[in-house]
Amino acid sequence: MDEKKLPLTSHLKELRDRLIFSFIAIGLGFVLCYALKEILFDILAAPLLEMMPPGGSLIFTSVAEAFFTYMKVALIAGLMLASPFVLYQIWAFVAPGLYRNEKRYVVPFVSLGSLFFAMGILFGYFVAIPFGFKFLLSYATDFIKPMPSMKEYLSFSIKFLLAFGLVFEFPVVLLLLAKIGVIDAKTLARQRKYAILLIFVFAAVMTPPDIISQVLMALPLMGLYELSILLAKLFGKRSAPVASTT
Questions:
Q1: Distances 221 to 63, 110, 129, 167, 214 between C-alpha atoms, Å
Q2: Could you give the C-alpha distances from 219 to 55, 174, 189, 196, in angstroms and in order?
Q3: d(CA 31, CA 74)
Q4: Which residues are registered as beta bridge partners of 149?
Q5: Nearest-CA neighbor of 83 among 25, 21, 157?
Q6: With contact defined as beta carbons under 8 Å apart, do 89 and 138 qualify?
Q7: Which of 12-17's residues contact partners 24+ apart within 8 Å by CB, and which partners?
Q8: pLDDT tens column, 43-52
Q9: Contacts for 39 with CB less than 8 Å, ≥ 6 apart
Q10: How far apart are CA 90 and CA 107, in angstroms?
Q11: Which backbone phi and psi does 151 adopt, to 5 degrees?
């Protein structure tokens, strides 16, 4: 009985140790990023402040709002900073239970997924957010002044950037499905018109209620869908050759 329980207890101990290491790494990342909290928030707020009218600025409407906003910024940045180490801990825990061919696929897809996620965030930061805010702030008048709060801006911008990071995972997910044989390039090409319709519906749900933001999300998604077709054609699962009966 003890021999049967030993593998489970050792796995649980390893899981506990790797969780502790991950939390320590996140904690260290948080401490480091909190020391740079003003710089990090200024970088995050730069797209909005560039579109604000002269003299415009962010405000906080409660005594503790600025403190908790900086805490959230430091925590998010610390988590991103520690994410490579955390991903390694997850991989080190899971890898012994995978077959060789499964290990061969995991590393490239995780790397590709991380790359596309970063590309989505950068696209959202440098392209989508400036255009979206420029449109939304155009409703300001001499009597209506934009005065966004730190808390509202942080919540909006993080959700917006995460949305773009996730939608840029589209080709990676479809490539994985093509690799295991669930879909193929011909099916994706055949369903293009339905995909475009779903893309615009998805963009309308995920973005603010303005046509500029919706188009800015829909157009990259359409391009990513075409990229998915190409990747599925190049790297998708090959059909087994049909044996000759002669």
A1: 41, 20, 16, 7, 11
A2: 34, 18, 17, 10
A3: 8
A4: 59
A5: 25
A6: no
A7: 14/93, 15/93
A8: 999 998 888 8
A9: none
A10: 12
A11: -65, -45
Report CA 106 to chain centroid distance, whole Å: 18
Q: pTM higher than 0.85, yes or no?
A: no
Structure letter (DSSP) for residue 149: B
Q: What is the pLDDT of residues 133-188, one digit of tens each?
A: 888 888 888 788 888 999 999 998 998 888 889 889 988 888 888 887 788 889 88
Buried b (16+ CB within 10 A) or exposed e, 21-35: ebeebbeebbeebbe
Distance of CA 246 to the CA centre of its chain: 53
Please give the span between the terminal C-alpha atoms of the chain, in angstroms, as a whole number. 59
What is the C-alpha separation between 59 and 52, in angstroms, rounded?
13
Exposed / middle / buried, residue 188 (Cβ in 10 Å: 0-12, 13-18, 19+):
buried
Tens digit of pLDDT for each residue in 46-77? Answer: 998 888 877 778 899 889 999 999 999 999 99
Instruction: Provide the token pair at 184.
Output: 């193929």
How many Å apart are CA 61 and CA 65, to the nearest integer? Answer: 7
Q: Which tokens is 6 given?
A: 């030993």
Which residue stretches of 52-191 are H helix? 65-94, 100-123, 129-137, 150-167, 170-179, 185-190
State the amino acid at position 117 in one-letter form: F
Which residues make Cβ contacts (< 8 Å) with residue 58, sequence separation at least 6? 45, 48, 49, 148, 149, 150, 153
Tokens of 13: 């101990």
- Within 10 angstroms of residue 84's Cβ, the number of other Cβ atoms is 11
SS3 180: coil
